[in-house]
C-alpha cells in the first residue's frame, strides 16, 4: 500500500475528532514548489474536516513582517486576538499527523490536559518561545510537540511554540549546531537534547520556581 | 504522546486498572483489560516505547515486516477501537489508600484498584569521556531519529546485540561507512541480521575492542580504543543494551533484582498485592515485544482475577 495513501487515510480518520471550527494561516514564500507541497497537505486536512477547518493563505510581505515570518512556508495558529500561538516550519505529515490534529482540536476549544497547571502558574511564566527541532523519522518528537503546543494554547500565547523540521531548514539547524533530535530550545537559552518531559519544560519556564 | 480519547478520561473515577507505560506491553495489557470490561487507563511517558525506534520489525507473528512506528500505529488503532484513554504523563508516587491506590503525576492524580507497571527500559549509557559532552553533537542513542544527519558520512555503532546490528543496517542505507565496534569476539545478533551485516559492504566489524573516549571539537571527529588506536568518525551510535525503568517500583517497595528489574511470578504478580508488572521492566530473561505483550496480557488477567468484584457484562 503506498505510504501517501496510508497517511492520507490517517488524516481523514483523525480529522473526525475536530468538532469545532478553526482557522490556520499559511504564510507562503517565493519557492512555489514548497508552497504547493504544504498547501496540498493542508488541503487534505481541510477537505477531511467537514468544513470546520479553513486555511487562509498569506503572501503579503507586510503581514509576514508583522509576524516576523522569515522562513517559509509557515503554518501559524493565530488566536482571535490576532496573537500567534503556534508556528509550524514543518509539514504536518507522517508521524506529525496525530500531534497536528490533536493541536487543532485543542486549539478549537477541546479539553487541554495541561490547562489547569499552566493557568495556575501563568503569573510565574515569562513570555517564552519554545522551539522544537525535529525530523520526520524521529519517534520522540511528536511527544514533545504535543505537550509544547498544549502549553502554548493553555497560556494563550504567553508561551509560543515553533516546530521546525531541520532537514527542511538546515540553516536553523546549523545556527543551533544541532545533529540530534528532538532538540528543544527555550528562549534561545536553555536547550534539551533528546526526550524531555512536560515537567522539566514547565520548570524551566517558571525559572526554577516551585510549580503551583 | 496523545490523549487518545480525552472524553473518555475521568479523573474522578477509580479505575480498575491503571497501566504505567506506553509500549506494546502496556497496550496489550490495557486491551485485554478493556475486553475484560475493566475500566482501564494508560499513563505513559513515551508512546510506543523502545520498539518505536526500531527501523524494521520482522519477528512479530502475523506481520512479515513493518517499521516499529508502523507497528505502534496498529496498536494505537486497536486502542482507539476500544476507547482506551491514554495520558502522556509520568507517575511520580503511589500511595495505598484503603482498598485502592492514588497515583500522583506532576499534573494530575489518578485512582486505581490495581496497577500494572510496564514502564519498559531505556538505553544504557557507555559512561566514557566525551559521551555527555558530545551528546547531540555526534553522539546518539537513536539511529532512526538521527540517522538522516549522517548522510554520506562515517559513523560507528558501539555494541554487538541484535539491536546494534539493526542500527548498523539502518544507518548503512545512507552513510558512507558504518563500523560496528564490539568488545567480544563475535556480534550476537540474530543469525538473519548477522548474515545481513556480514554481507553489507558498507559495514565493517571491529571485534575485541572497547571505545574508551569520544573526541572532537564542536562535534565528534574520532574515537579512541582501549588498544590506543584511533578511528575517525562523524557520529557515534551507542547501542549497548538497556536499563529497566523501575524507579517508581523501587519507590513503593516492589522487590527488584540486582539488575533493577521487578521480580514477578508467572502471573505477572509482584510482591505487592494489586501491583503487577510486565515487559522489559520485569525480570524475564528474554526481552522482546512479543514476550512483553504476553506478560502484559497475563498481568491484565491477573488484575481481573484480583478484582473479583468486577462484573462482566455480555
Question: Can you tell me about this structure?
Answer:
The complex is a heterodimer of chains A (212) and B (314). Chain A has 212 residues and is of the alpha/beta class. Chain A has one domain: Glutaredoxin (3-Layer(aba) Sandwich), CATH 3.40.30. Chain A has eight helices and eight strands. Chain A has an eight-stranded mixed beta sheet with strand order 2-1-3-4-6-5-7-8, with helices on both faces. In chain A, helix 4 packs parallel to helix 6. The longest helix of chain A has 16 residues. Chain B has 314 residues and is α/β, with parallel strands linked by helices. Chain B has two domains: 183 residues, 3-Layer(bba) Sandwich (FAD/NAD(P)-binding domain), CATH 3.50.50; 100 residues, FAD/NAD(P)-binding domain, CATH 3.50.50.60. Chain B is built from seven helices and 17 strands. Chain B is elongated and about 65 Å long.
H and E order of chain B: EHEHEEEEEEHEHEHEEEEEEHEH
The CATH superfamily label of the largest domain in chain B reads FAD/NAD(P)-binding domain
| CATH architecture assignment name of chain A | 3-Layer(aba) Sandwich
Query: What class, by secondary structure content of chain A?
Result: alpha/beta
Helix-residue proportion of chain A: 25-40%
Q: Describe the largest sheet of chain B.
A: 7 strands, mixed
Number of domains of chain B: 2
Low-pLDDT segments of chain A? none
Q: Catalogue the unreliable spans of chain B.
A: none
Radius of gyration of chain B: 21 Å
| Annotation field: number of helices of chain A | 8
Q: Tell me the domain tally of chain A.
A: 1
Amino acid at each position: 500500500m503506498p505510504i501517501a495513501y496510508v497517511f492520507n487515510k490517517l488524516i481523514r480518520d483523525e480529522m473526525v475528532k475536530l468538532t469545532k471550527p478553526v482557522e490556520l494561516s499559511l504564510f507562503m514564500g517565493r519557492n512555489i514548489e514548497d508552497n504547493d507541497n504544504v498547501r496540498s497537505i493542508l488541503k487534505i486536512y481541510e477537505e477531511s474536516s467537514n468544513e470546520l477547518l479553513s486555511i487562509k493563505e498569506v503572501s503579503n510581505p507586510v503581514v509576514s513582517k508583522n509576524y516576523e515570518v522569515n522562513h517559509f512556508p509557515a503554518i501559524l495558529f493565530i488566536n482571535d486576538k490576532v496573537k500567534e500561538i503556534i508556528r509550524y516550519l514543518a509539514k504536518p505529515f507522517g508521524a506529525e499527523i496525530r500531534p497536528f490534529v490533536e493541536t487543532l482540536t485543542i486549539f478549537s476549544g477541546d479539553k487541554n490536559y495541561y490547562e489547569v497547571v499552566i493557568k495556575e502558574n501563568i503569573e510565574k511564566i515569562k513570555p517564552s518561545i519554545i522551539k522544537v527541532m525535529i525530523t520526520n523519522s524521529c519517534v520522540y518528537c511528536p511527544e514533545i510537540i504535543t505537550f509544547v503546543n498544549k502549553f502554548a494554547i493553555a497560556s494563550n500565547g504567553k508561551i509560543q511554540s515553533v516546530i521546525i523540521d531541520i532537514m527542511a531548514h538546515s540553516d536553523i539547524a546549523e545556527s543551533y549546531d544541532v545533529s540530534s533530535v528532538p532538540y528543544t530550545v527555550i528562549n534561545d537559552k536553555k536547550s534539551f537534547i533528546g526526550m524531555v518531559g512536560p515537567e522539566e519544560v514547565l520548570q524551566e519556564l517558571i525559572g526554577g520556581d516551585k510549580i503551583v | 504522546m496523545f490523549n487518545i480519547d480525552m472524553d473518555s478520561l475521568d479523573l474522578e473515577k477509580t479505575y480498575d486498572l491503571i497501566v504505567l507505560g506506553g509500549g506494546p506491553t502496556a497496550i496489550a495489557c490495557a486491551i485485554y483489560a478493556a475486553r475484560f470490561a475493566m475500566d482501564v487507563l494508560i499513563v505513559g511517558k513515551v508512546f510506543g516505547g523502545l520498539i518505536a525506534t526500531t527501523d524494521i520489525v520482522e519477528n512479530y507473528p502475523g506481520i512479515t515486516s513493518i517499521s516499529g512506528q508502523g507497528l505502534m500505529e496498529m496498536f494505537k488503532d486497536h486502542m482507539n477501537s476500544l476507547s482506551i484513554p491514554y495520558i502522556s504523563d509520568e507517575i511520580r508516587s503511589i500511595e495505598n489508600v484503603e482498598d485502592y491506590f492514588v497515583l500522583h503525576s506532576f499534573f494530575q492524580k489518578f485512582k486505581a484498584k490495581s496497577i500494572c507497571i510496564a514502564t519498559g527500559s531505556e538505553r544504557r549509557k557507555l559512561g566514557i569521556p566525551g559521551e555527555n559532552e558530545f551528546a547531540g553533537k555526534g553522539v546518539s542513542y537513536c539511529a532512526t531519529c538521527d540517522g538522516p544527519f549522517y548522510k554520506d558520512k562515517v559513523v560507528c555503532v558501539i555494541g554487538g546485540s541484535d539491536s546494534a546490528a539493526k542500527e548498523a543496517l539502518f544507518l548503512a542505507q545512507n552513510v558512507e561507512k558504518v563500523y560496528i565496534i564490539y568488545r567480544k569476539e563475535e556480534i550476537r545478533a540474530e543469525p538473519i541480521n548477522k548474515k545481513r551485516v556480514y554481507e553489507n559492504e558498507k559495514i565493517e566489524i571491529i571485534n575485541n575492542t572497547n571505545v574508551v573516549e569520544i573526541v572532537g571539537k564542536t562535534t565528534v571527529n574520532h574515537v579512541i580504543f582501549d588498544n590506543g588506536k584511533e578511528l575517525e568518525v562523524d557520529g557515534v551510535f551507542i547501542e549497548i543494551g538497556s536499563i529497566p525503568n523501575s524507579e517508581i517500583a523501587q519507590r513503593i517497595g516492589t522487590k527488584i533484582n540486582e539488575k533493577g528489574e521487578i521480580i514477578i511470578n508467572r502471573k505477572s504478580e509482584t510482591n505487592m498485592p494489586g501491583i503487577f508488572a510486565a515487559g522489559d521492566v520485569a525480570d524475564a530473561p528474554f526481552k522482546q515485544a512479543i514476550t512483553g505483550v504476553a506478560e502484559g496480557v497475563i498481568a491484565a488477567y491477573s488484575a481481573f482475577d484480583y478484582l473479583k468484584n468486577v462484573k462482566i457484562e455480555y
